[in-house]
Amino acid sequence: MRLLLVEDDRKIGADVASALTQAGYAVEICADGEEAWFLGDTEDYDLVILDIGLPKLDGLTIIKRWRQNDRHMPVLMLTARASWAERVEGIDAGADDYLPKPFQFEELIARVRALIRRSVGIGAAVLSIGPLSIDPRSMRVSLNGAPLALTPLEYRLISYLGHHRGRVVPPSELQSHLYGDDFSRDANALEVLITRLRRKLGAELIGNRRGFGYYLGEEP
Predict the structure, then answer these.
(1) Structurally, what CATH architecture does the domain formed by 127-216 represent?
(2) Omega of the bond prior to 131 within 30 degrees of 0, cis?
(3) Disulfide engineering: 95 pairs with which of 77, 108, 189, 197, CB 3.0-4.6 Å?
(4) Domain ranges in the chain?
(5) Which CATH fold topology does 2-119 show?
(6) In the structure, what pLDDT confidence band is assigned to residue 219 with cuts at 50, 70 and 90?
(7) What pLDDT, in 10s, does the model give residues 35-62?
């Protein structure tokens, strides 16, 4: 899952990004309101964590512009000024959730998981696709009840396909959401990763519609 974190406090930004990375997300950090607006308007993210108080352009203005331009990714807003009026204004502007500072990383990550599930129409905390179970809370995957030993990148791939079950995901989308803004990856890295996962899961669980992309479970 690819997240955009918009936070102008470098210490908070680094700490939050580290916690999210450890939770299995690909995180891009931005500290400038104008840059944040541009990135959210031109790139695809599974979720944006957006501080209200930013240089050049404030968070409320950014989210209003995104929604006006039909950018519908979930947005979790952060603020150090958690008055009820401000929360109402943020939600009316298009925010999906609100978290006042200071906060616990565990709560932030739980809210991120819930927003992503909601955005793709999944209610259950644990994803089940045939014999496969994916638990985003513990970042564990099991096959027929037996836990699998996966690398962080392997987990990220299977989690993304699991959250987008029922559709064929293009390779370019997978690469973007796996690696974020790291464009130095070899073009064959995704194929190598999928081949490795198929050895662990069984070749039938990750399907490929040639020329279109990959899917998890039954072909859409």
Answers:
(1) Orthogonal Bundle (1.10)
(2) no
(3) 77
(4) 2-119, 127-216
(5) Rossmann fold (3.40.50)
(6) confident
(7) 999 999 999 999 999 999 899 999 999 9
What CA–CA distance (Å, rounded) separates 89 from 78?
A: 13
In this predicted structure, what is the pLDDT of residue 184?
A: 52
Burial 125-152 (b: 16+ CB within 10 A, else e): eebebeebbbebeeeebeeeeeebebee
pLDDT-derived band at 113 (thresholds 50, 70, 90) equals very high
Regarding beta strands 206-209 and 146-147, do their DSSP bridges make them parallel or antiparallel, or are they unpaired?
unpaired
